[in-house]
């Protein structure tokens, strides 16, 4: 699916503008929307899946204006909201079957085949008879993905799926998404966790205070910070001075000193040397500098 977003703005009735003039083009595969809490990611996604309306701007999905074709668009979209909750009285397979009844026209026999196929795909077949509300946090998220997939969407929108998951579950979740992105489906994933993006997405945007601070590839974002990441060993006094002037990204105590990595446009200390940048450095750089839309 090709999604063209032009001049998208969302102002809530209380006057707060959560998304400001966002322009993005999103193609097939996995697209990452990175940003801190409050950046506007959920607001953006709710508009995208037609749960709420934009104040201004247009979204075209494969050429269809989503405001003019809401019903058609809803059939193309699977959505896993951040606050996804389950009915307490249903077993895992029953929950998914219920979702299938809502979003497909399949007969019972075909539905059940599909339910088990999806449970297998997200690694929940073993727990199909467990009550859905008794699943672990990671399992619930995976069941959330299964319900979003049941209508065979062309676009899958997933809001902060890895928040609160332990590292093993987070990796498992990322792997499921990577597998899905090999199929003919566009996936938009929002997160404030840099590792979610670097391990799954070739295309991304960073939102900050409702505005696009960067769009391009993770590698392109890293390139922007190259030459601005520094490493230096400092004593307590030097460290205390430098940390008031620059964004410190890591400190490791080494032999009574501090091995410090920090972000600075110019060399922050005579002994500082350039360090290899990564996406976390770039994230801090864009957050601190509020650079506006990048040049890529
Ligand atoms: P994120 O998903 O990146 O954390 P949100 O889209 O949830 O960001 O929120 C962006 C901003 O919009 C925040 O300042 C939030 O308080 C505000 N906001 C979100 N929803 C509403 C609402 N329904 N009414 C008023 N303000 C809202």
List keywords for this structure.
Rossmann fold; 6-stranded mixed sheet; 296 residues; 35% helix; 4-stranded antiparallel sheet; binds adenosine-5'-diphosphate; globular; disordered C terminus; alpha/beta; 14 strands
Structure characterization notes:
This protein is α/β, with parallel strands linked by helices and 296 residues long. It contains 10 helices and 14 strands. The protein has helices at 41-48, 70-76, 92-103, 108-121, 137-149, 167-181, 194-198, 218-225, 236-245, 279-289, and strands at residues 3-11, 17-26, 29-34, 56-61, 64-65, 77-80, 155-159, 186-191, 203-208, 211-216, 229-234, 247-254, 257-263, 273-274. It has a 6-stranded mixed beta sheet, sandwiched between helices. It has a 4-stranded antiparallel beta sheet with strand order 2-1-4-5, with helices on one face. It starts with a strand and ends in a 7-residue tail after the last helix. Mean pLDDT is 92; it is low at 291-296. The protein binds adenosine-5'-diphosphate. The site of adenosine-5'-diphosphate has 12 residues, from helix 1.
How would you briefly describe this protein structure?
The chain has 296 residues and is of the alpha/beta class.
Helix/strand order: EEEHEEHEHHHEHEHEEHEHEEEH
Instruction: Give the class-level CATH name of the largest domain.
Output: Alpha Beta
> Span between N and C termini?
22 Å
Q: Name the strands of the widest sheet in spatial order.
A: 6-7-8-3-9-10
Q: How many strand elements?
A: 14
Question: Which ions and ligands are bound to the chains?
Answer: adenosine-5'-diphosphate
State the CATH architecture of the largest domain. 3-Layer(aba) Sandwich
SS-based class: alpha/beta
Indicate how many domains the architecture comprises.
2
The CATH homology group name of the largest domain: P-loop containing nucleotide triphosphate hydrolases
Radius of gyration: 22 Å
Count of helices? 10
The portion of residues forming beta strands comes to 25-35%
Shape: globular
Major sheet size, sense and barrel closure: 6 strands, mixed
Task: Identify low-pLDDT runs.
Answer: 291-296
The CATH topology of the largest domain corresponds to Rossmann fold
Q: How confident is the prediction overall: mean pLDDT?
A: 92
Helix content: 25-40%
Keywords: ATP-binding, Nucleotide-binding, Transport
GO molecular function: ATP binding; ATP hydrolysis activity
Family: Belongs to the ABC transporter superfamily.
Domain ABC transporter: 3-234
